[in-house]
């Protein structure tokens, strides 16, 4: 996404997730990403603290830009990503 320094799209929901959501009469969601902070936040006086002060991800997994850079460099296309609440 152009909004973020780097982002990794997660292939969610799969068929099992969709079926489980239907059973509970809820939405499975979608367009889930792992990403850094929005590009324009670099101008904030809060800097890297901004993500910890707000609930702003709309269901995505947010990291600092330094952390997403590290994950980006170590993650190859097709790498399984497990999200365990």
Written account of the structure:
A three-stranded mixed beta sheet has the order 1-2-3. The protein is built from three helices and three strands; from the N terminus they run E-H-E-H-E-H. The two termini are 25 Å apart. Helices cover 27% and strands 9% of the residues. It has 85 residues and is α+β, with helices and mostly antiparallel strands. It has one domain.
Q: Can you give me a brief rundown of this structure?
A:
This protein has about 80 residues and is of the alpha+beta class. Helix content is about 25%, strand content about 10%. It is built from three helices and three strands.
* Cα distance spanning the termini: 25 Å
Helical content band: 25-40%
Structural class: alpha+beta
Global outline: globular
Q: Please summarize the sheet with the most strands.
A: 3 strands, mixed
Radius of gyration: 15 Å
- Quaternary form: single chain
Name a few traits of the molecule.
single chain; 85 residues; three-stranded mixed sheet; 3 helices; 3 strands; 27% helix; 9% strand; globular
Task: Please render the helix and strand layout as text.
Elements: E1 7-9, H1 15-23, E2 33-35, H2 50-53, E3 61-62, H3 65-74
Parallel strand pairs: 2-3
Antiparallel strand pairs: 1-2
């Amino acid at each position: 996404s152009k909004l973020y320094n780097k982002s990794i799209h997660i292939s969610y929901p799969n068929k099992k997730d969709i079926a489980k959501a239907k059973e509970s009469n809820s939405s499975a969601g979608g367009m889930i990403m792992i990403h850094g902070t929005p590009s324009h936040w670099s101008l904030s006086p809060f800097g890297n603290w901004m993500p910890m002060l707000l609930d702003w991800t709309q269901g995505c997994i947010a990291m600092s830009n330094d952390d997403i850079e590290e994950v980006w460099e170590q993650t190859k296309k097709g790498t399984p990503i497990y999200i365990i609440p």
